[in-house]
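## Example record

The block below lists the input lines for one assembly entry, exactly as stored, with component labels intact.
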Amino acid sequence: MTPKFVVLGPPGAGKTTVGVLLAERLGVPFRDTDDDIVAAAGKPISDIFTDDGEPAFRAMEEEAVAEGLKTHDGVLALGGGAVMSATTRERLAGHTVVFLNVGMAEGVRRTGMSSARPLLAGVNPRATFKSLLDARLPLYREVATIEVVTDDLTPDQVVDAVLGTTGTAQGT
Ligand SMILES: Nc1ncnc2c1ncn2[C@@H]1O[C@H](COP(=O)(O)OP(=O)(O)O)[C@@H](O)[C@H]1O
Ligand SMILES: O=C(O)C1=C[C@@H](OP(=O)(O)O)[C@@H](O)[C@H](O)C1
Ligand SMILES: [Mg+2]
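Predicted structure tokens for the full assembly:
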């Protein structure tokens, strides 16, 4: 059992939104490792960060990704920081990995509406987003087999781009 697509990229790239649409188009199940972590912890991500700290969250995330890669057959979306784990990057080898890219301005705009992302909840989300992109862009590219720049695309157009790239587009 292996995911048809693993979706990753920075917060606000549309991993969850596009992942759901992509799974619908392909008629396969969708799974998001953030949801698995929330279910396992029994509390929201912001509470995990506050109560247990980021390292505890990252350990749970590594486990959730490993489990998803082993047991999920559809579209698997990861959290934006999952690629910071070298172990996770190794585990992604051989999978079809879609990197949804988004620039700072659009990424901040898309995530600004929500307080659910503790890493971006500080006083200067633009600076935080930029340093996050600087650190992670090479890691996303290291593991990705497909990259789609999403800034000027609707979620449906992103799905078209992903399926067009892989030649697995379904009928209309
Ligand atoms: N291509 C897009 N164009 C416009 N808004 C988008 C796009 N993709 C996602 N969004 C919006 O951005 C926000 C974050 O999307 P989400 O799927 O949660 O991103 P991620 O899981 O990558 O952090 C949501 O409000 C979503 O509706
Ligand atoms: O970028 C990150 O480090 C994080 C991104 C979030 O997921 P999304 O990328 O789906 O927002 C979530 O896993 C957590 O808040 C940490
Ligand atoms: Mg998400």
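The chain is about 55% helix and 10% strand. Helices lie at 15-26, 33-41, 45-52, 54-71, 86-92, 104-111, 125-143, 155-166.
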